[in-house]
Specification:
14 strands, alpha/beta, 351 residues, 8-stranded mixed β-sheet
């Protein structure tokens, strides 16, 4: 696979983030995807999110499997560590990489075919282990590299470009992740830049496995009348579950006011926020209600987006396994290899 480097042009008035980097410092090679592909919009949102969070590129590891979606890590964060694995095996590589260096910010980019078909088992184990990573599924409902066959995410009744009707019930990534106990589940649309950047930032900062399913239309094979993953269908059936925002972690600001009333809160940067407490609404922490709501909207053909479910109390993988707080790459040899005597004691406990 060949990559074309982006030319770096100095323009007057370019903004720097908190660590002095330009947005272009978070870019990668020029995209070789089809013009108009939703995946390129996701790439732009990833660049924007990491730049706004001021995360050094060398502090990031980016991983992928196989497919159009899995090419996209080449197009962002050229200064990051990266690994393009085999089809459906990105999660196990991510687990190994993060086990070796828990200090890295981990982002995995996959596709609906890569994660919901051949990699379905690996997807499930990354979720249940609550690996501390942002797991993006670029969902277009087809296998774009092999000429547009239906993927496991294609909705029943959806029509292919050549007129075939999908007869199979789809695997819904968000409902599946919630049912398996995921600690962070969201969905967005590649055409909604504002929401997508916010959810990416929230997923990066979430201490656990953040699943972000992004409807990303394939302009070559799945953007026609009859497709439920097209730009037109998604825009017509777009249903944000809640208004989502992201605030960089800082000391907690607490307020108390009655339902149906408003109050003004001063934020850390001095700006003021007007809050209004609704009498009732979408609760992203109530797992059973979220599942019911998603099924109701799904039956109506609505594409529900936003932060759909979160459980901030669920411990991430390193806490579950009680691993060393010092990354394995920084441990002394004696700690990593305590010798035959320690092995014998371990084996004796298992008899």
């Amino acid at each position: 696979m060949s990559f074309i480097k982006k030319p770096k042009i100095d323009l007057p008035g370019q903004l720097h983030n908190e660590i002095g980097l330009l947005k272009r410092d978070y870019e990668g090679a020029l995209s070789t995807l089809c013009a108009g592909c939703g995946h390129d919009s996701i790439t732009a949102a990833i660049v924007q999110a990491f730049w706004e969070l001021s995360i050094p590129p060398e502090q990031v590891i980016k991983l992928s499997g196989i497919g159009c979606s899995s090419k996209t890590p080449a197009y962002f964060l050229s200064g990051a560590h990266g690994f393009n694995s085999v089809h459906g095996r990105m999660p196990s590589v991510a687990i190994g990489a993060h086990s070796g260096n828990r200090d890295l910010v981990c982002i995995g980019v996959s596709g609906d075919g890569d994660s919901l078909s051949i990699g379905f088992g690996q997807f499930g184990h990354a979720v249940r282990r609550n690996l501390n990573m942002l797991y993006i599924i670029e969902n277009n409902g087809v296998y774009g590299l092999t000429k547009g066959q239906f993927s496991a995410a294609a909705d029943k009744g959806s029509k292919s470009k050549r007129g075939d009707i999908n007869q199979w019930k789809n695997i819904d990534a968000v409902s599946t992740a919630i049912s398996m106990g995921s600690s962070f589940v969201a969905r967005s649309f590649s055409g909604d830049r504002e929401q997508l950047v916010t959810l990416i930032k929230a997923g990066i900062m979430h201490p656990g496995c953040a699943i972000l399913d992004v409807v990303s239309p394939c302009v070559t094979f799945n953007n026609h009348a009859g497709s439920t993953k097209s730009y037109t269908y998604t825009r017509d059936h777009y249903h944000p579950a809640s208004q989502t925002d992201f605030i960089t972690p800082a000391s907690e600001i607490k307020v108390s006011y009655a339902e149906g009333t408003s109050t003004v809160v001063e934020l850390h940067d001095g700006s003021k926020l007007l809050l209004k407490k609704a009498s009732s609404g979408y609760d992203a922490t109530d797992r059973s209600r979220v599942m019911r709501y998603l099924e109701q909207q799904r039956a109506q053909g609505e594409v529900v987006t936003g932060l759909l479910y979160i459980n901030a109390e669920l411990p991430e993988m390193h806490r579950i396994y009680r691993t060393s707080e010092i990354p394995m790459k920084d441990l002394e040899f004696e700690k990593l290899n305590p010798g035959s005597e320690a092995l014998a004691k371990l084996q004796a406990r298992m008899r």
